Amino acid sequence: MAKRFDRLEQIRRMDPVADASEIYRLTAAYEFPWDITRALELALFRTYAVPSIGRLLAETAELTDRSQKRYDDTSLLLDTVVEHGFASEPGRTAIRRINQMHRSYDISDDDMRYVLCTFVVVPKRWIDTFGWRRLSRHEIVASTVHYRALGRHLGIKDIPESYEEFEACLDAYEQAHFGWDERARTVSDATLDLMTSWYPSPLAPVLRGATLALLDEPLLKAFRYEPPAALTRALVRRAVRARSRAVRLLPPRRAPHFARQNREIKSYPAGYRVADLGTCPVPGVRGCPVRHSGGSAGDPVQ
Fold first, then answer.
1. Are the C-beta atoms of residues 77 and 26 closer than 8 Å to each other?
2. Is the separation of the CB atoms in 62 and 279 below 8 Å?
3. Helix (H) or strand (E) holding 174
4. How confident is the model at residue 296 (pLDDT cuts 50, 70, 90)?
5. How far apart are CA 174 and CA 52, in angstroms?
6. pTM metric for this prediction
7. How far apart are alpha carbons 220 and 151 in whole angstroms?
8. What is the DSSP letter of 154?
C-alpha cells in the first residue's frame, strides 16, 4: 500500500532540472492540486493590483463581462501544458493560443515577466503556509525551471534564473507598481463575484469575506478594500490549515487531478478544443484593439 510520502521520495530521486516538468506535474496534479488552484486564483488579484495590467483587463472586458469563460480558458490553457508537456501537440497549441492573445494587446515585457513571477512565487508561498507539507527543494527548482521554459515559449525577456530571483523580482515589482486604479478594482470585484457564484448564494458574503481574509495588506490597500477583522482573518487561516492537517492523514492520490476536472470550470460541459480556447483577435484590427496608456508591447514568439 502506498504511503503518504512515497511520491515525495519519487520526486527526490528525479533530476529537478532535466525532469522539471514531470516533477511539476506530480506536484500540481497529485500532491497539491487544490492548493495550487487556490494559489493561482490569489495570484490573479496580485496582477490586477498593477494598474497597467488591471486597466488593460478592464478595457478588454474579458474578466468583467465574461468572467467565467476567461477564468476557464486561462486555467485550461496553462494546465494543458502541465498535463501534456511543451513538446506535445496540445501543449504547442495552448502556447500558440496564449501568444496569439498576447500579440493582440500592448503588454509590456515587464508586466509579462511579473505575471510569470506570480506563477512561481505565489503557489510556493501558499503551500509553505497552508499546504499539508512544505515544498521540497527539488519541487521548488522544478517549478522554476518549468516556468522559465514557459516564459521562453512566450518570448519573455530577462527571465529570472532561480526561485530566489523570481521572488526578488516579484517583491520589487509589487513595491514599485502596486497602486489604486478604479478600473482594476472593477476587475477584482468581478473576480470575487465569480468565485462566490460557485456556491449557494446565501454563502456569498461569507465567501467574499473569507477570500479578502487571504489577501495581504498591500493587496487590500491597492484595491481599497476594508481590511477584514483580525478574528475573521485568524478563523479563515485556521480553517485552511485544518484542511491541510486532514489531507496529510489521507492516503496519497492514486490518479492525477488536472484543471479540466475542477468543479469551478463551467464553460464547456460538452468538452472543448484547445485551439478554440481564449479570445480571438478582432477582425480587421491591427495591433491592440483597446485604447490605453502603458509600456511598449512585448514581443512574444510562436
1. no
2. yes
3. helix 163-177
4. very low
5. 12
6. 0.90
7. 28
8. T
